[in-house]
Predict the 3D structure of the following.
Amino acid sequence: MGRTMTDALAPGARVTVQGWVHRRRTLAGVTFVVLRDRTGLAQVVVKDPATIREVAGYGEETVVSVTGTVLANPVAPGGVEVVDPRFETLTDPAETPPVQLWRPTPQAGLPTLLDHAPVALRHPRLAASWRLAAASMHGFRSALSAAGFTEVQTPKLVEMSTESGANVFTVDYFGRPAYLAQSPQLYKQVLVGVFERVFEVGPVFRAEQHDTLRHVAEYVSLDAEVGFVRDHRDVIAVLREALAGMVAAVRERAASAVGLLDVRLPVVPEEIPVVHFRDALRIAGAPPDEPDLAPEHERALSAWALAELGSELLAVEGYPMRKRPFYTHPQTVPEPDPQWSNSFDVLFRGLELTTGGQRLHRYADYRAALAASGQDEAAYAGYLEAFRHGMPPHGGFAIGLERWVARLTGASNIREVTLFPRDLHRLSP
Amino acid sequence: MGRTMTDALAPGARVTVQGWVHRRRTLAGVTFVVLRDRTGLAQVVVKDPATIREVAGYGEETVVSVTGTVLANPVAPGGVEVVDPRFETLTDPAETPPVQLWRPTPQAGLPTLLDHAPVALRHPRLAASWRLAAASMHGFRSALSAAGFTEVQTPKLVEMSTESGANVFTVDYFGRPAYLAQSPQLYKQVLVGVFERVFEVGPVFRAEQHDTLRHVAEYVSLDAEVGFVRDHRDVIAVLREALAGMVAAVRERAASAVGLLDVRLPVVPEEIPVVHFRDALRIAGAPPDEPDLAPEHERALSAWALAELGSELLAVEGYPMRKRPFYTHPQTVPEPDPQWSNSFDVLFRGLELTTGGQRLHRYADYRAALAASGQDEAAYAGYLEAFRHGMPPHGGFAIGLERWVARLTGASNIREVTLFPRDLHRLSP
């Protein structure tokens, strides 16, 4: 089970390779079979009439084992081909797939690709998208592990919704209601009290009532939280390390996917440039009393950052407190001002990639914040216990994995880069 | 935010360290403050009367920043102590924790530790247990990545239960029922069709109706699935690599946790020894018509493997088909026999650690297996589509992360090594 197409094919050698019949082309007296395995494609040249007849019965996606001689051929994919082949099928001949996997780009529309994801994902371009995601997860973890972070896994079944009652899925938990965690926010903060620096890579759940291109009901969140920060700018510095690690890992571990999808990887600057929300509104040409950035403002800001600062990443700090969750720390830098916050969004190529910030850390501040937002302290008992017993100044951020990959590939719909998306209308496959 | 206790304390230097007041001891004219951060403990010696008075107000778990001079002291923890300290509090003085975190072993019972997990987990022994888990995840991933596996993240919200209707949580999914995945089984198989070799580390959900020491309602599953196997013994070989990687990572990345908890790491043999289920019954002294191994049989087999084979790991192959799920491949080795299966359990220190095996891979076999088990093909449409369009012989396994850690630490209750356990009675904190 070990030999692969890209590392095994030394000219002259007699080899056995295993894979899927990706494509068959029948000419006069010769059939070309392109085999696919996890590492790429290899061309098999069939000239023996009996074998040609045999191969005629192998529909695309039939799984075969091929033994043959490797021959150099500069015009073949990979520069080599396999001649004098002997075929053995490892399963029954496959039925013709619902999507033509051998075409350079899938010809089917997105609904068809999603309906048939179990097979459509075999298309090299679709598989390549996920390889970017897999490499990104690796890079996120290694950058943060190198910085002393501990990986955690927090419960997805929770007694209350994380931040509000909206968009939350309800579970029948042994006869009483439980909820699916919308984020590991409260747990990752609590765990800063244990490990100082934590990260988590795992599913989060949002009962999004509207169909949009940017939202699905379940996605993978790359979460980090770090203690002993001075303010949110220390958090942005950690985010910078995570993003640099992700880009480096994609470059190193998913090079062929980057090539196939023609991904232009961003340069992560030594320091992500920061503008204040107030200035961001002005730059984007928005009215000065807007409480948030609209999509067109995010696009304008990204264009500005690229043109003026030469950066594809831009942090906007100081979002108005009234638009941020109760655990948000009020602004201390650039100057103390309680109407603004020590929180930020990071924009990447015209869209919000990350939300993060410094959190409150004093018990008294939490009690006041919950009271001010009209919430019941009892519902937050476990969370508050951490603060009652000493929590350092801390902050963190979350990156949506699929949203990040969509930015890399230029996919306009997040579903294009999600393995088996879930939304208002889709719960399978 | 970067300096830590164990790497910063060079004798003679003036340093600032940040952490929690772990323990205070007041003698005549001197107060010892033991500080704790993510890397360990450091002793601060307070002799200045004003500072002694100040420190008297810092309850345990108060978060402080201490600037002082490092002095060699062979009897202090770490061989150094900090003298002439100046303290700064980073938060309000903490209330006394519900569990005395400074005691070498927590004196509280398990229910108290779980009720107060947000603070109790700060106890160095409890935090150390999770460090074993974090290192194990790292080792699992790196061993499999090195073997060409791709990491995947599959949906936890599914349209049907994975294997049976039992023990499954129901979710209100936009007004219709959905279920929480009991395992990534069906998805990881489908993804073998895409990536050949896949692994996933993520939560799985079991609505366990009974309180047992070995089961919780949500745990972390380390899943792998590999294509182009000859039979289940190739899968056992992959499992061997994963376990070896986990042990190596625990040794390298969680050395201080291993020391603190006095963990004896297993030697993973070059090849995990295999016995057939039939022989296992005989060795365990069980009746030859038993359909499964009881806990006492597992203990007897582990004792036998250690005594006779010098191995703490033992694979039992050939479990009766009637006790295994519908996708199980019938036995082909040691000899073809349809009453037995190409599936296995691996026992570790007297308990089942892993279940795995070869799966069916032919479309016709799946149709027959579903019909034989009285299940509706329509419910498995997406899954079956993968097999209709060519799937290689494949197999895989799953390791329960917390169960693995419990075996390492000797914890009798899985809850002792789960960050925030969920069960029939417990949904918080």
Observations:
- Residues 118-417 of chain B form a domain with the BirA Bifunctional Protein; domain 2 fold (CATH 3.30.930.10).
